[in-house]
Amino acid sequence: MEKILETLRKSEQIAYQFRSIFEHYGYQKFRMAKFEAYDFYTHYKDFLADSPILTFTDFSGKLMALKPDVTMSIVKNTRATGKCPEKLYYMESVYRLSREVREFKEIFQIGLEYIGKVSAYTQVEVINLALKCLACIDENYVLGVSHMGFLSGFFDAIPVDQTEKRTLLDCLESKNLHELNRLIGQYHLDDQLGKQLKVLAGIGGSMETELQKINGLILNEKMQIAYEDLQSLYDVLKRNQLSRSMRMDFSLTTDEKYYNGLVFRGYVMSVPKAILSGGQYDNLLIRMHKPDLQAIGFAIYFDEMERVLKQPENNSYDMVILYDDNSDLSVLYEEVEDLICNGKRVYVGETIPQKIIGTVYCKMERNRRVEIQI
């Protein structure tokens, strides 16, 4: 098995590791069709971050879409109940518009979804799996953690309308303290709320340190529940060395129409964007007419990950064997099969392409293999 893994590209090896991790924790592979009816996505287009959808008309005249998302299809097809959850992982391609080149791209994703009743342990398990996945990619990684319940509770307690709330959230996301100061004055927030808002914007350190800070910001029950979620998560995971790479960061926000609990993103060295993104999305299930269920999960974006995993092609072989018209092909075949059965990588050809490198070079002289110098 190790010899087989060595022949895989780094990204393929990591995908194999992810699959092994998920299955050891009881997650089963979810397989889906490449297409969904376009109408299915039109009801939840804002969940797709306003990305256009690649469509085509099938033979029956029905408008279909190449899937831009996996989570929605899993929720649509789930058989989970509160007492009988589904633990699923997927390895699928999605089709989205690239912001850089303004054309559709096929993006390979691996992710997992837990659908049922999300307990404190469920949150621990999913965050732990996200940390394990990041550790497989690069030893230098960070998992940023936020909580939409804490942010939502805070904004429920201050006198701003929805437009003003969105503007303030934009400042939190960008950590723009200068603009935040201006808006605090413009919206006539009192000194105490203004101070608390600036503390919230400055959250961005270790879980232990930042939990102490946000404990002093709690204004209502919603914030208290969110704080207890975060504290419980840390109390369990702090025993795990991986948790040292967790950071609390309230600049991580997302759409409240879908997400209501933990929100998290993973980063590795040398990649400026998040390569892992996830959260608890009970509100999506409510909108999809499954109000008795809860869900949490994450996805890993291999298009971003490939930037850190680029490596030269493995064109190195244990043996390169040349043959010509005078070579005995039966003997050549037997020699090659014997070498490969013994775990060797063998390249056979009439000539040696420039990129091919061999540890040993041979030529078939009629019915025997002779070592040669190149």
Low-confidence stretches: none
Report the order of strands and helices: HHEEHEEHEEHEHHHHHHEEEHEHEHEEE
Q: Provide the residue-averaged pLDDT.
A: 87
Q: For the record, give the distance between the C-alpha atoms at the N and C termini, rounded to a whole number.
A: 32 Å
Counted up, domains total: 2
Structural class: alpha/beta
The number of helical elements comes to: 14
Q: Mind telling me the C-alpha Rg?
A: 27 Å
At the fold tier of CATH, the topology name of the largest domain is: BirA Bifunctional Protein, domain 2
Largest beta-sheet details = 8 strands, mixed
Structure overview:
It comes from Flexilinea flocculi. This is ATP phosphoribosyltransferase regulatory subunit HisZ. Residues 7-304 form the Class II Histidinyl-tRNA synthetase (HisRS)-like catalytic core domain. L-histidine binds at residues 69-71, 96, 109, 113, 258-259. One of its GO terms (molecular function) is glycosyltransferase activity. This protein is of the alpha/beta class. The chain folds into 2 domains: 2-32 and 70-309, Bira Bifunctional Protein, Domain 2 (BirA Bifunctional Protein, domain 2, 2-Layer Sandwich); 316-372. It is built from 14 helices and 15 strands. It has helices at residues 2-6, 10-24, 38-42, 71-77, 120-137, 148-156, 162-174, 177-186, 191-201, 207-215, 221-237, 282-287, 302-309, 329-341; strands at residues 28-29, 35-37, 55-57, 63-66, 86-97, 104-116, 141-147, 246-248, 262-268, 276-280, 294-301, 316-322, 346-349, 357-365, 368-372. The strands form 3 sheets. The chain has an 8-stranded mixed sheet, sandwiched between helices. Strand 9 (262-268) and strand 10 form a beta hairpin. Helix 2 (10-24) runs antiparallel to helix 5 (120-137), helix 5 crosses helix 11 and helix 10 packs antiparallel against helix 11. The mean pLDDT is 87.
